[in-house]
């Protein structure tokens, strides 16, 4: 382990990052990991979630949809969306070093550094969709309120969802609140799959698609 705490072994880095005790420490760890993130996930894990999410987006969104990639990291999910034919992409993340890597790829129309645990500067109803990949164990559940706020009525929220974390971290409670209020509806729930079959086989995701109702 180097002086910063970043593990020497690629396979240990994900667990180290998501086990951070606070959001501030998690941000620090992600920033430290930024330079090796793509290589680690590409070489160590068959990271299946970005492509699975992009496939769902293609089924539910027009190719010119304005999409917010929430928790964009280094742009792996954005690249999958781009490869699926989407071009109007905005990347948002709280870790500036991760976002700098993403910005350098030329995937996004704009990149925004913001903390989804609180209200951002994004406009109400400003996007046709939010896509968020692998963030439920890391982004505070208040982020779901923000997704609903920034997506226009009739738009979609597409989540590559670690269901265990969705429940334990409070997303399920917020989902139920907005469903009772008639603000969102879960319109599709995909089959479970191992998102990280090489190093984290116990992490099982589902692709969930919500519609924002108004």
Question: What secondary-structure arrangement, pairings included, does this model have?
Answer:
Blueprint: H1 10-18, H2 23-43, H3 49-60, E1 67-70, H4 76-83, E2 89-93, H5 96-103, E3 110-113, E4 127-133, H6 143-150, E5 151-162, H7 163-168, H8 171-180, E6 184-189, E7 193-196, E8 200-212
Parallel strand pairs: 1-2, 1-4, 2-3, 4-5
Antiparallel strand pairs: 5-8, 6-8, 7-8
Helix pairs in contact: 1-2, 2-5, 3-4
Do you know the CATH architecture of the largest domain? 3-Layer(aba) Sandwich
Distance between the termini: 49 Å
Report the mean per-residue pLDDT as an integer: 90
CATH H-level superfamily title of the largest domain: Vaccinia Virus protein VP39
For the record, the CATH class of the largest domain is Alpha Beta
CATH topology grouping of the largest domain: Rossmann fold
Structural description of this entry:
The protein is of the alpha/beta class and 214 residues long. It has two domains: 10-43, no CATH class; 49-212, Rossmann fold (3-Layer(aba) Sandwich). 38% of the residues lie in helices and 26% in strands. The chain contains eight helices and eight strands; from the N terminus they run αααβαβαββαβααβββ. The chain has helices at 10-18, 23-43, 49-60, 76-83, 96-103, 143-150, 163-168, 171-180, and strands at 67-70, 89-93, 110-113, 127-133, 151-162, 184-189, 193-196, 200-212. Strands 1, 2, 3, 4, 5, 6, 7 and 8 form an eight-stranded mixed sheet that branches. Strand 4 (127-133), helix 6 and strand 5 form a beta-alpha-beta unit. Helix 2 packs parallel to helix 5 and helix 3 packs across helix 4 (76-83). The protein is globular, with a radius of gyration of 16 Å. The protein starts with 9 loop residues before the first helix and ends with a strand. The model has no long low-confidence stretch (mean pLDDT 90).
């Amino acid at each position: 382990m180097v002086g910063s705490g970043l593990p020497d072994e690629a396979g240990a880095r994900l667990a180290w990052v998501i086990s951070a005790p606070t959001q501030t420490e998690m941000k620090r760890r992600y920033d430290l990991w930024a330079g090796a993130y793509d290589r680690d996930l590409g070489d160590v894990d068959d990271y299946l979630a970005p492509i699975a999410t992009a496939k769902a987006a293609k089924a539910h969104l027009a190719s010119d949809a304005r999409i917010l990639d929430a928790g964009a990291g280094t742009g792996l999910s954005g690249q999958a969306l781009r490869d699926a034919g989407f071009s109007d992409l905005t990347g948002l993340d709280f870790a500036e070093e991760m976002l700098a890597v993403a910005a350098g790829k030329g995937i996004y129309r704009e990149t925004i550094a913001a903390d989804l645990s609180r209200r951002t500067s994004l406009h109400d109803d400003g996007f046709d969709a939010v896509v968020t990949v692998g963030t439920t164990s890391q982004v505070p559940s208040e982020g779901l309120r923000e997704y609903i706020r920034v997506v226009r009525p009739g738009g979609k929220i597409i989540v590559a969802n670690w269901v265990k974390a969705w429940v334990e971290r409070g997303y399920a409670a917020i989902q139920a609140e907005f469903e009772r209020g008639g603000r969102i509806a879960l319109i599709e729930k995909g089959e479970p799959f191992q998102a990280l079959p090489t190093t984290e086989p116990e992490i099982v995701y589902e692709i969930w698609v919500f519609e924002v109702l108004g």
